[in-house]
Amino acid sequence: MSLLKTATNVADFAAAARRRLPRVVWDYLDGGAEDETTLRDNRAGFERLKIMPRVLTGNAKRDQSVELFGTRFASPFMIGPTGLNGLFWPDADLALARAAASADVGFALSTASNNSLEEVAATGPGTRWFQLYPWGDAAFSARLLERAKRSGYSAVIVTVDTLTAGKRERDLRNGFSHELRITPRVVLDGLAHPAWLRSVWLGRGMPRFENLAEFLPPGASASQLADFTRSQRNPSFAWEDIERLKRTWEGPILVKGILASADAVRALEAGADGVVVSNHGGRQLDGAPATIDALPDIVAAIGGRGRVLVDGGFRRGSDIVKAVALGADAVLLGRSTLYGLAAAGQAGATRVLAILRDEVDRTLALAGARSLVDLQQMQIVSSPPSQLRHGALDRVV
Ligand SMILES: Cc1cc2nc3c(=O)[nH]c(=O)nc-3n(C[C@H](O)[C@H](O)[C@H](O)COP(=O)(O)O)c2cc1C
């Protein structure tokens, strides 16, 4: 039977992705920084939190839809921005955009995508946001925002936790950085994974950062584009630059990579419409807190003046329910949908979204909630039970 029929959860897709991908590609997808403590803690954070169920609440029908910046989505999650998706599947950004649209959830395209933002926009209906890496040359950022606006992207996520590269030791050991260099080890690794080799490598060759192609001479290679990306890192990017980007873009802007509540407030002062509580999936500062632990203080500090999204380790519907109960408006999926994509392309990502939707619905039912609004009154209990945590509105004691 096919994986699409047999897989019952995100972990099944992760296992299948791991089998299909060469080691170097799997490590890029799955790995974190240094000792990977933050990577692990993102998951452990969920395990420490429990949902206190309420019974007999008459919740035979549940509604998990959510409104963000004027658009209603079918579920409180969307596909977050990830770069170099073309390493996992050919035309991967198109596949993810289509999977999101078919599930009626949003899709955020990375600056470092392998299909251009215009190609992704041409996939048809769907709500798409553009993720911007703050470039050294402000003119490049302005130009990307102009293209995103012209192509109908409705919000921008500015990622601020990667101004310096994280130390990802699996990648260092594999000699991997922004691109796959052909070494004897990579060739052997590829030959041992023929399904991937046929579809990705022999099909397309090294995926290029297509959004950036216009900044280099025509026909620039994947490797030249990767060098360009490295050269454009901008460690001096600051809050004033967010203010400038907001003026340029005009539409909704979210600052992604916020963990301290003071920074969440600063983001709003700089004109942001919300934040993404994120530690980049444990790929940047190892030792940063789990995002689910950082979330409640940020929700309190924002106090309803902006939207709060969160990502990091979300693999179950119950994880998503916990985040919403703690006050998040929505969750960005990183590796979960990448596992689906890397295992089975668009169909795999679509199936992951369906599994998560079903798990959110089932969790709402079992917890005794009819909607996301009910969740705000849900008791979220941290284990050991001596430390009690409550839903965002702190109404239940
Ligand atoms: C393979 C990979 C590539 C990523 N590329 C980007 C990127 O280009 N831009 C960005 O803002 N975040 C990027 N991220 C971070 C994700 O947006 C998100 O913060 C993180 O994956 C969430 O954690 P999770 O994967 O455990 O769900 C990437 C993450 C992964 C796993």
TrEMBL record:
Molecular-function GO term, any one: L-lactate dehydrogenase (NAD+) activity
What are the residue boundaries of the FMN hydroxy acid dehydrogenase domain, all occurrences included? Answer: 2-385
Positions of the catalytic residues:
H280 (proton acceptor)
Keyword 4Fe-4S assigned to the entry: answer is no
Cross-referenced Pfam families: FMN_dh
Residues the entry annotates as binding glyoxylate: Y28, Y133, R168, H280, R283
Q: Is Oxidoreductase there in the keyword field?
A: yes
> Which residues participate in FMN binding?
81-83, 110, 131, 159, 256, 278, 311-315, 334-335
Entry GO CC: plasma membrane
Protein family = Belongs to the FMN-dependent alpha-hydroxy acid dehydrogenase family.
Q: What is this protein called?
A: FMN hydroxy acid dehydrogenase domain-containing protein
Q: Which organism is it from?
A: Bosea thiooxidans
Q: What is the lineage of its organism?
A: Bacteria, Pseudomonadati, Pseudomonadota, Alphaproteobacteria, Hyphomicrobiales
